[in-house]
Amino acid sequence: MDQAVCCYRHPDRETGIRCTRCERPICPECMVNASVGFQCPECVNEANRRTAAPRTVAGGTVAADPFLITKILIGLNIAVFLLVKAVGDRLVNDLGLYAICGNDPFTGQHACIGVADGADQWYRVITSAFLHQEYWHIGFNMLSLWWIGAPLERLLGRSRYLALYVVSALGGSAAVLLISPDVLTLGASGAVFGLFGATAVFMRRMRYDMRPILILLALNIVFSFTWANVSWQGHMGGLIAGTVIAIGMAYAPRERRDLVQWGTLAAVLVVSLALTGVAVAQITS
């Protein structure tokens, strides 16, 4: 008499079906439909692990919500803006970007304030990028962040997009401290201009019609140099940083893509911080 064959996962259940991959006996509860026959759960899981996860154009992981980071950044900017409205100018002075050294008009003593006051004030190079005072300012920046940032986040993936945003903001801050450190500067414009530059690079790389982004970028550059109280220094610093990072991301060879992309990001970050250090040294000397 033949011995009964039982499911390898349920020894109390007889079966006449075997996994088409490993040939282990499986009961109806364990059967997973395959292109030919049935497979056991372990073989299906192993196949899923070996299947490459879908990637974005830049090599990032495809996320369920491709716009999550953009939404979070917009939320943070709006939250800080509401906090400024509730607390007043004190928060602007505490988080804004400036670096000044000179003699106190009341005491006559030499003093430094802002980023020039010491390393513990360097947080201003990033907090200032989330700081807005006027409704038009945050409105314009957040609309630009959504229109430009959301498609770019889907193109890059979350980690690359966030790194691009932050380092572009730092590049804008470095340019401000080098050129006009004595003027209080705030706003997400430096980071947004970095996204503009990155969008232009990827549109060129993907052979899209570049006229719309070039026209938009040109209008924003003209706006930067012609409107009063607009930091063209921060805009151009962010634009340069974002463009350089995007070139590294878009044209990295596939076999060394991660190394080139993150290496470019690291290089721009180091240069931005180094220029910030040079600017502070010039101000305090």
From TrEMBL:
Domain of life: Bacteria
Start and end residues of each Peptidase S54 rhomboid domain: 120-249
GO annotation, biological process: proteolysis
MF terms (GO), sorted A to Z: serine-type endopeptidase activity
Main location: membrane
TM stretches of this protein: 162-180, 186-203, 210-228, 234-252, 259-283
Alphabetized UniProt keyword annotations: Hydrolase, Membrane, Protease, Transmembrane, Transmembrane helix
InterPro entries named in the record: Peptidase_S54_rhomboid_dom, Rhomboid-like_sf, Rhomboid_protease_S54
A single Gene Ontology CC term: membrane
Topology of this chain in the membrane: Multi-pass membrane protein
Compartmental location: Membrane
Family from the record: Belongs to the peptidase S54 family.
Family matches, as PANTHER family: PRESENILIN-ASSOCIATED RHOMBOID-LIKE PROTEIN, MITOCHONDRIAL (PTHR43731:SF14), RHOMBOID PROTEASE (PTHR43731)
Name this polypeptide is given: Membrane associated serine protease, rhomboid family
Organism: Actinacidiphila alni
